[in-house]
Write a structure and sequence with these properties.
This is Methylenetetrahydrofolate reductase C-terminal domain-containing protein. By secondary structure, the chain is mainly α. It contains 6 helices and no strands. It has one domain (2-157). The structure holds iron/sulfur cluster (SF4).
């Protein structure tokens, strides 16, 4: 919902803190995801992610979430789906040239990022969207990648 999306950007710091508390929990649950099977966990976890992030951010389930780098404004809501923005068409009032009644997703991203502790991450150039990941859970991907990284670090320290 558009108004909730704008609310999320206004409360980007609160949501950043919430995610920072949530991420380690998802990562710690790696043994559970492994026991169930990451593939099998996709359906329920992905559904939960879709519902919660859909409500808060109008999430499109791109599978490679960058909300913490974009001020809690989902770049997939940009009508040009720009992963690095804004484009050159932002109106003088900060609205979108495609939907002039709406704020530019990237103007929102900048404003949200200024409220966040990790707000400088907006300066990082994002990779193009990998469409093979569409519809998959970013949460599970974070858990899997973090556990793989931990395993590599453990292996390296032995
Ligand atoms: S960046 Fe991707 S996963 Fe994150 S809210 Fe937007 S569509 Fe959803």
């Amino acid at each position: 919902m558009y108004s909730v999306r704008l609310w999320a950007v206004r409360h980007a710091r609160l949501l950043e803190l919430t995610y920072r508390a949530f991420e380690p929990v998802i990562v710690k649950l790696h043994p559970l995801w492994k026991a169930v099977g990451y593939q099998r966990a996709e359906k329920p976890v992905g559904k939960l992610e879709e519902l919660s992030k859909g409500l808060l951010f109008d999430c499109k389930m791109c599978g490679q979430c960058i909300l913490s780098s974009t001020g809690m404004s989902c770049s997939m809501n940009c009508p040009k789906t720009m992963r690095n923005g804004p484009c050159g068409g932002v109106l003088q009032n900060g609205n979108c040239e495609v939907y002039p009644e709406k704020r530019c997703v990237w103007v929102e991203a900048w404003e949200g990022s200024q409220k966040m502790k990790g707000g400088d991450k907006i300066q990082v150039v994002q990779l193009p969207v990998d469409h093979r990941l569409e519809g998959s859970s970013s949460w599970l991907r974070v858990a899997r990648e973090a556990s793989e990284q931990q395993a590599v670090q453990k292996g390296g320290s032995q």
